[in-house]
Write a structure and sequence with these properties.
Blueprint (H helix, E strand, L loop, with lengths): L12 E10 L2 H19 L8 E10 L7 E9 L3 H7 L5 E4 L19 H6 L11 E3 L3 H12 L5 E3 L5 H14 L33 H11 L16 H17 L3 E3 L2 E9 L2 E9 L9 E6 L3 E3 L6 H9 L4 E3 L2 E10 H9 L15 E3 L5 E8 L3 E4 L9 E4 L8 E10 L11 H16 L4 E5 H8 L19 E2 L2 E3 L8 H17 L9 E6 L6 E3 L12 E3 L10 H30 L1
Parallel strand pairs: 5-6, 5-11, 6-7, 11-24, 16-20, 19-21
Antiparallel strand pairs: 1-3, 1-4, 2-3, 8-9, 9-10, 12-23, 13-18, 13-22, 14-15, 15-18, 16-17, 19-22
Length: about 600
């Protein structure tokens, strides 16, 4: 939409904020027509004045429920902006110069497949001794690899799990049988943990450089619906994400990159404070045990390992990679009937033209801990997201239609290194493991489920169980994986349980029915974010030269979008490294 003028500058746009249109069947069927008509009236245009527009943002406004509005921000072009602004005065109308993303290579232009031979001949990408290697194909690694590939850097991506097609089969098998593949599961495999999650694409990260829009555009190019570009709460869903991830991989390969699955990095080779090679273990598909060892020479390695690669964190610690324990949060999944959330948020039974309603709640416990909802899944499922034998963790997942019977979200309590019982940089990981071991034992290897009424009474010291046997009846869990009723109140320490109940009661005062006895709890939600931060400097590198910590696992992101944006940020840093060396070589040659 935003094109350059003949002088190479981006043209200004007329921006209109807060265009409100009533939600209903008419808007659902004739959105483009109704929006264009409203733009004409606001800008006081004559019939002969032609224009085009792009939706920048669309959000749902339910403050006057049950009357619901969609509020739009649009950018309009094709008009004389000065004349229009004089004619259509108003605080909601302005002239803007949209921020456009630029990758620091090739003028920011994406290369076409046929251009690669000339790229190689110019030695644009081969001035470093070896190609960049990316460890992990979650959102951070995948977007880092994608950006490097389409700009000619021919990255090599290594993934300990399987490609997304075979990974889906492994996950479904685990949910049905309980047989866990510790190298390919909800946490490990192409697409990372984000592939089996709520699939939300909103972020609180400030985006003055346009990386957020770039991430969304790549998603759309790879098969996601176009409305994620402007929806206030964009969402894809696991069923679509799996295809998007596959398409991104194929684009990386088509642009000269490589993607290797069943390949785990087990060691780093460091010389004179710089990365020199990676030791990997290649596992044959479908076989357990140790695989074949190999050495990959590289002087640029991206650590996009995800928050659950605990064995890799241990290896990095042993190799003296600088890191520290960081705060994160743990809690339980809470399930409510989706129709309850819809009726509360919309003030009526949800009509078909409105999406399943979401919520966001926060509170502070008496001891100062934050309690808040996380990864809220309208019409979604709780999933067994375990990745280690004898340990159990849950997450939330939703499909694109969000048509499940229950809404769920993690209600989580903040924890800090003071809670870990250790000053060790990996103390948070051991804290997670203790909780996950308890969850596994309490549920006999299945997801432990408890009604909130019983959980609350146990925390308050009341002995009577009123619903543990399932007599609440009206609420039943929607869980991917095996589950059973159990005493989930025995998973977390007392202080966290008390904070959890205080938070739930506070939310119940805001949202009627939120803290009802029949609300279903399951746990443990322990993988909200990384308990470790791997240190890096302004150039994106660890104290070990050429080693780039990246994304959620390294402690620099907290979801699909922020991880993908950090992947792009690291790709930019790597491009600058290559260009710096190329400039040095050219100067030396002169």
């Amino acid at each position: 939409m935003y094109e350059q003028n003949g002088e190479g500058k981006w043209t200004n746009m007329i921006r209109i904020n807060q265009i409100n249109l009533k939600a209903g069947p008419a808007l659902a069927e004739r959105e483009e027509e109704l929006l264009k008509s409203k733009i004409k009236r606001l800008l006081k245009l004559k019939d002969k004045e032609e224009f085009t527009y792009e939706i920048v943002k669309r959000s749902l406004d339910a403050r006057k429920k049950p009357v619901i509005f969609y509020s739009y921000t649009v950018d309009v072009e094709g008009l004389n902006e000065n004349e229009v602004i004089k004619r259509a005065k108003g605080s909601q109308i302005s002239v803007v110069e949209p921020a456009r993303y630029r990758f620091p290579s090739s003028g920011g232009e994406r290369l076409k497949i046929e251009d690669f031979q000339s790229v190689l001949e110019r030695s644009m990408v081969i001035k470093k001794e070896h190609r960049p290697v990316i460890i992990g194909t979650g959102p951070a690694g995948l977007f880092c690899g994608y950006m490097l590939a389409i700009h000619g850097y021919r990255p090599i991506l290594l993934e300990r799990g399987m490609d997304v097609e075979h990974r889906c089969e492994k996950v479904e098998e685990f949910w049905k049988t309980g047989r866990l593949d510790t190298e390919c599961n909800i946490q490990f495999g192409e697409g990372g943990a984000g592939t089996f999650s709520d699939g939300k694409l909103n972020t609180l990260v400030k985006d003055k450089d346009g990386r957020s829009r770039q991430v969304l555009s790549i998603f759309v190019t790879s098969g996601a619906p176009k409305d994620i570009l402007y929806d206030g709460k964009p969402h894809i869903g696991t069923d679509i994400l799996t295809n998007v991830v596959k398409n991104m991989r194929e684009a990386i390969i088509a642009h000269g990159g490589e993607v290797h699955f069943n390949t785990k990095v087990t060691d780093l080779c460091i010389e004179n404070g710089r990365i020199k090679a990676l030791i990997v273990e290649k596992r044959e598909k479908g076989k357990k045990g140790e695989g074949k060892k190999a050495r990959i020479e590289t002087d640029v390695a991206v650590l996009a390992i995800g928050h659950s690669a605990r064995d890799t964190f241990q290896m990095l610690y042993e190799r003296k990679v600088s890191m520290e324990a960081k705060a994160f949060a743990v809690g339980l999944r809470a399930e409510h009937p989706q129709e309850l959330i819809d009726s509360i948020q919309y003030g009526m039974e949800r009509p078909g033209y409105l999406p399943p309603a979401a919520y966001k709640v926060t509170a502070k416990a008496k001891d100062g801990r934050g309690v808040y909802s996380f990864c809220m899944c309208p019409g979604g499922y709780v999933v067994n997201a375990s990745s280690e034998e004898g340990h159990l963790a849950v997450n939330g997942m939703s499909y694109s239609r969000r048509d499940g019977q229950n809404a769920n979200s993690a209600i989580i309590v903040s924890v800090t290194p003071k809670d870990y019982g250790s000053s060790h940089p990996l103390g948070g990981i051991e804290f997670q493991r203790r909780l996950e071991e308890r969850a596994y034992e309490i549920g006999n290897g299945k997801v432990p489920v408890e009604y909130y009424g019983d959980f609350k009474r146990a925390v308050w010291g009341e002995k009577k169980d009123t619903g543990y046997d399932g007599t609440y009846g009206q609420y039943m869990p929607r869980i991917k994986g095996q589950w059973q009723f159990a005493k989930a109140h025995n998973i977390m320490p007392d202080a966290l349980n008390r904070a959890f109940v205080e938070g739930m009661e506070a939310f119940g005062r805001k949202i009627p029915g939120f803290a009802a006895d029949g609300v279903i709890l399951s746990g443990i939600e322990s993988r909200t974010s990384s308990p470790v931060r791997i240190h890096r400097g302004e150039n994106g590198q660890s104290e070990i030269g050429g080693l780039f910590p990246c994304g959620e696992g390294a402690g620099y992101a907290g979801g699909i979008m922020s991880a993908a944006m950090d992947g792009i940020r690291i790709a930019e840093q790597i491009a600058r490294e290559y260009q710096t060396q190329r400039s040095k070589v050219i100067c030396d040659e002169k």
